[in-house]
Amino acid sequence: MRKILALCTTLAITVFVLNGVISQASNQDSFYTQAAQMGLAEVMLSNLALQRANSEQVRSFAQQMVTDHTATNQELTSLATGKNVTLPTDTDAKHRAAAEKLGAASGTDFDRAYMKQMVKDHESAVKLFQRESDRGTDADSKAFAAKTLPALQNHLQMARTLNDSVKNMKSGGNSNGNSNSNSDTNMNSGGGNMNMNSNSGNMNMNSNSNRNSNSNRNTNSNTNSNTNSNTNSNRQ
To answer: Tens digit of pLDDT for each residue in 6-30?
Structure first.
């Protein structure tokens, strides 16, 4: 009986340990998988932005995303290989659908949709890497997450700032964020001259109205009334 109890206890401990190992491996694989899919999505969507973005600032941001996330993806692949973890070679269905939707947009509509997606993606990435750096059980993945996290936080801040900027762009137009409005009005109403210049944004309107009203009225009225009444009464 004691042997049976001892055997059962041993089996229970073994199962518990195995479950812990499996759970740890599962969590580790989950981080690698999610991080890989996120990185692939950033590169895919940003390459699309390099082709279709309307704003120079958005294209510059997209280029940085391609450069930074490509390097991070390579480092993650090397780390996963050493852990015998097989990484996905494509992003998830959600980001493939996002890419398809972005492919149908153009101009400033594309810029707004892309930057909105970048904010959303980097918020998720920051949470994932923050959680791994705080509570990760694998020393290598935990160190990788902690090292990568500041760059992701910087990306998120950049994305939020640029997202706020593109929201103010007019659909289908180019916006450099500069607005100049000059309005000069010169009115001289002493000599009858009026000059009005109105410049607003990219539209120049010159309206010159010269009105010269010269009214010279010279009225010379000379009335000479000479009345000479000479009444000579010579009464002699």
So the answer is: 565 655 554 444 444 333 445 557 9
Cβ atoms of 16 and 102 closer than 8 Å? no
Give the helix ranges, DSSP H, for the chain: 2-52, 56-82, 93-103, 107-135, 139-166
CA dist 118 and 112 (Å) reads: 10
Q: Cβ distance 152 to 172 under 8 Å?
A: no
- Smallest CA-to-CA distance from 144 within 35, 232, 57 is with 35
Q: Are 71 and 31 in contact (CB under 8 A)?
A: no
In angstroms, the first-to-last Cα distance of the chain is 189
List Cα–Cα distances, 106 to 49, 114, 119, in angstroms.
Answer: 10, 10, 19
**pTM higher than 0.85:** no
Cα 40 to Cα 50: distance, rounded to the nearest angstrom: 16
Strands 203-209 and 193-200: antiparallel
- Six-digit token string for 218: 């010279």
Tens digit of each residue's pLDDT (9 = 90 or more) over 130-165: 999 999 999 999 999 999 999 999 999 999 999 999
CA dihedral 80, 84, 88, 89 (to 10 degrees): 80
CA angle in degrees (0–180, nearest 5) for 24-28-30: 115
Q: 177: left (phi > 0), else alpha (psi -120 to 50), else beta?
A: left
Give the tokens for residue 91.
């992003």
